[in-house]
Amino acid sequence: MSTDRGRPRARRSPTSGRATIYSVAERAGVSIATVSRVLSGTAVTSPEATERVLKAAHELAYVPQNSAKSLASARYQTHAVVIGSLDGPYYSELLMGYEEVAARHDQELLLVVADLPRRARTLADLRARVDGVMIAQMDIPAEEIAALAALIPVVVVGRTRLEGCDVVISESTDTANALTRHLIDVHGRRRLVFVGDPDQSSDVAARHAGFQAALTESGLDPVAEPLRVPYTEQGGDAAVALVLGLPSRPDALVCANDEVALALGAGLRRRSIVPGADLSLTGWDDVTAARYVRPGLTTARQPVREMGGRAAELLHRRVGGSAGPVGQHVLATEAVIRQSCGCPD
Amino acid sequence: MSTDRGRPRARRSPTSGRATIYSVAERAGVSIATVSRVLSGTAVTSPEATERVLKAAHELAYVPQNSAKSLASARYQTHAVVIGSLDGPYYSELLMGYEEVAARHDQELLLVVADLPRRARTLADLRARVDGVMIAQMDIPAEEIAALAALIPVVVVGRTRLEGCDVVISESTDTANALTRHLIDVHGRRRLVFVGDPDQSSDVAARHAGFQAALTESGLDPVAEPLRVPYTEQGGDAAVALVLGLPSRPDALVCANDEVALALGAGLRRRSIVPGADLSLTGWDDVTAARYVRPGLTTARQPVREMGGRAAELLHRRVGGSAGPVGQHVLATEAVIRQSCGCPD
DNA sequence: TTCGGTACTGTAAGCGCTTACGGAGCCACG
DNA sequence: CGTGGCTCCGTAAGCGCTTACAGTACCGAA
Fold first, then answer.
1. What is the pLDDT of residues B134-157, one digit of tens each?
2. Which of A172, A198, A329, B146 has the largest CB neighbor count within 10 A?
3. How far does the CA of residue A103 sit from the closest CA of chain B (Å)?
4. Do A78 and A33 sit in the same domain of this protein?
């Protein structure tokens, strides 16, 4: 019947008893369009209508259904955050920094822990679920990231040399250089070894480059190839054996991160080789434990929280279309001199 | 015209160029219903249709639009994870454990860091965005949680005495008791003090209860009221002054967590009071630093990862409706004896 | 041959929003 | 008094799915 034509189509059943835009409209005596306009502030509405809608919405404890909003507006108000693990303070700190800024822009966070096995599916699927993706995981191939970046805005943290997406990193090479120079110039070290695999992440590669540069500038050669161990406690334990197996005992160990340095230091000490005295030991990241061990671990502090914040800001802009050409954002790093290099307390 | 009646309504424009269920249906030569059935596996489809749909979907790189799915099915396939902070290893570990199990059930994770200021809005809004909520934050009032639990399935980790939702905790009282008895019976401590505020969290309250019970069972009285400091490094620093200000110097400090214990230990040592020798010091949580400091910190290890996993499992069941009555799930805790209590290396 | 099942499939309604479009009411101006 | 412009509002189409319902085709039993 044509008498039906003018009114909103009959609703099914009140599915969940939850208020919808229809119930709010009815209670406020306006159309759903007006409710939408009032609540999203996208168009002018009369003071009376505005007030009535607000009142009705409040009385019904109305919360807009997220899925309906997204479907109609083609916006998710959500960023995906892709990390490989939450081990150690690095990712936690990064996530906190990211969250803070994202929340300021009313963006929600979808946490994706992307193991290798489940990655392929997940990563591509994200484009049907979020507005943009932040990646802070080292072991995802560059091509995979590039493919994703072609579908949806992507910002990457902590690694470099990526095409088509913004990158946020902290300065590594110069600081690693300075730290290494400190060992050479101040502590007179001559037989230095880098502990960590430069090929595993561009970040570590940059640190290694700084290390290498410092040696070259001082006319030295490394005592050995980098000791390629994983960036974990286990890696540090493994490094103990490698160090002891070296033809000539090094007098300085520059580690890719604190975890490795701490485990390596503890292992050496068990063999009566005392970091700070018998050799210099440095880490990277300034984890909490670094300032509790004795001797305190000389290391470098990345502005991790700020990196997260910057990444969130960038991605938000990029999603909103108000960002310039993609580029690389480098934040400053600070060397933290404690005693494991040989400095006095 | 009635000739139009039989065919699917005309689509607007190909909004984003992305494949939809319509394009897949068209390419496969079937209806969208069949596509949906094939891809979700909710009904039998002929081998030929199945294959054609799969092929078309693959060729078009089709990913179902999450918002449309949710809107139509009233399911989000997402859990909210509410935490107060990611500081320290506790929350990271919890989150990892949770994520692992949630992923196994194909549930996504919405990360909500709920500061006090933004909490009220966020928490209630979650019901229009996720299927269930996991809360691992200590400072949310019980009533607020109860209110949320009335709207949507909720599971709480690490605190007790909550109505209407599942609770996952680790055993605290007995382990705290055992740890305290160790100090009394093995190390002959008599002047014990608890460091931490039992009123801040039910978890710490339980540890304090165990501490208190051990004293009572041994016919002792605590030397002083609990030193009510925050559970942070700053709290530990503050505790140093409190300890030194005590009328009688305690010979054992039982701390609410490792962070406090580590900072307190470092502070005391600076005053030439050596943990392990001059007094016993214990923590709780077994953070990474606990095994690197000297003396190694005697502490207790909660099965944090398992707690996260259990919580995810519970919430998934509860959302699916296949869970029994709400209840409390207690996992075992393990005392970790190192040297800060006075034990030899 | 007829009829009831069984195995699939298509049609279309509906999920709860956003938003283009057009209309109503009102004022100022010619 | 007619007209143009402005402000506010309602109508309805559409977002891309799921799923109830109603076939259709085919087979075996009566």
1. 999 888 888 889 999 999 999 999
2. A172
3. 9
4. no
Distance of B21 CA from D28 C1′ (whole Å): 37
Give, as ranges, the nucleotides of chain C with any atom within 7 Å of a protein CB. 7-20
Of B341, B332, B343, nearest to B172 by C-alpha is B332
List, for residues A158-207, the tens digit of each pLDDT value. 888 788 899 999 999 999 999 999 999 999 999 999 999 999 888 899 99
CB within 8 Å: B292 and A292: yes
* A46 strand C contact, CB < 7 Å: no
The answer to whether the beta carbons of residues A297 and A270 sit under 8 Å apart is no
Q: Which domain holds residue A316?
A: 74-167+304-328
Measured CA to C1', the nucleotide nearest B48 is C8
Tokens linked to A274 = 């005392």
In the predicted model, what is the mean pLDDT of residues A223-243? 92
pTM for the model stands at 0.85
Please state whether strand C lies within 7 Å of residue A40 at its CB atom.
yes
Q: How far apart are CA B39 and CA B49, in angstroms?
A: 11
Closest nt to B31 (CA→C1')? Answer: C10
Residue nearest to nucleotide D9 (CA to C1'): A34
Q: Do B161 and B222 fall within a single domain? A: no
Give residue B233's pLDDT: 86
The whole-number average pLDDT for the span B277-297 is 92
DSSP secondary structure code for residue B192 in this structure: E
Residue A334: inside a domain, yes or no? no
pLDDT for residue A6 is more than 60: no
- Using DSSP bridges, classify how beta strands B108-113 and B78-83 pair: parallel, antiparallel or unpaired: parallel
Domain containing residue B14: CATH number:
1.10.260.40
Shortest Cα distance, chain B CAs vs residue A10, angstroms: 17
The owner of tokens 């480098």 is: A330
**A165, A155 in Cβ contact below 8 A?**
yes
Distance from CA of B290 to the nearest CA of A (A): 8
Asked if A108 and B129 come within 8 Å (Cβ–Cβ), the reply is yes
**CA gap B307, B341 in Å, rounded:** 27
- Mind listing the pLDDT tens digit for each residue in A89-134? 889 999 999 999 999 999 999 999 987 777 767 788 999 999 999 9
